[in-house]
């Protein structure tokens, strides 16, 4: 599964530190912390009909991540929202848009990893692209990666950081195997997530998702658990082994980039009937209704 270039994005206007410029002219300093050491945090946002889904939750996680990394002078909520609004307005965007929001530690006085070398506040980068859901609604295939998710005493997954090399290495495993994405285990061998999404199983009518011991606390993941509660669907959070995955009635993944997506095979083993199951289909419809009727309105001229 390879995303193709969307012609709607050929002349994108990108926002770097409040400066709006054409995608070919946007510049990040070579002394910026994100270049020097991947020292940044990020969020992925979705724009539906001029509204950003769960914006408050995303910006709260961005702030928590920046605080955990001891960033100085984190931009306030209203300032970030205004930069997002300016970017969307510059591109005339209202629908079918994914926003990559990056906050770096900022520019350093000289190269090096010491945060004391940072002489200015954080750099905010807003990249808004036209991007339809990236996964096939008919279902995707996963392969288990040899790359493990780290535990909190190595690199706490509660920090939504830009160090994505483990995800990239796992994605390479999937590419080589001819799969869509990679299933990643934690250091104990339990399922953590995929290289890009949270994982859900359905077994005996109960929806089960791994703990966030070794994966980020996904915003879409939380929304799906809320939808289960609203619909009266039994849901559980706990450790899941590969055996649980192979024998599940249904498997699906969740994320801002693609919403809810069924998984039809893992490691060459068919999951359930090999087609999207009724629980995933019902939750997909409920999620679509939720995104169509909720979110933070962004005033776009």
Q: What's the short story on this structure?
A:
The protein is built from eight helices and 16 strands. The protein has 301 residues and is α+β, with helices and mostly antiparallel strands. Strands 7, 8, 9, 10, 11, 12, 13, 14 and 15 form a nine-stranded mixed sheet that branches. Strands 2-1-6-5-3-4-16 form a seven-stranded antiparallel sheet.
Structure description:
The protein is an alpha+beta fold and 301 residues long. The chain has 8 helices and 16 strands. The protein has helices at residues 33-37, 55-68, 77-91, 152-155, 165-177, 219-231, 242-246, 278-293, and strands spanning 13-16, 19-22, 40-48, 51-52, 97-104, 123-130, 140-144, 181-185, 191-194, 198-203, 206-209, 235-237, 250-255, 259-266, 269-270, 296-297. The two termini are 36 Å apart. The radius of gyration is 19 Å and the shape is globular. Strands 7, 8, 9, 10, 11, 12, 13, 14 and 15 form a 9-stranded mixed beta sheet that branches. It has a 7-stranded antiparallel beta sheet with strand order 2-1-6-5-3-4-16. Helices cover 28% and strands 27% of the residues.
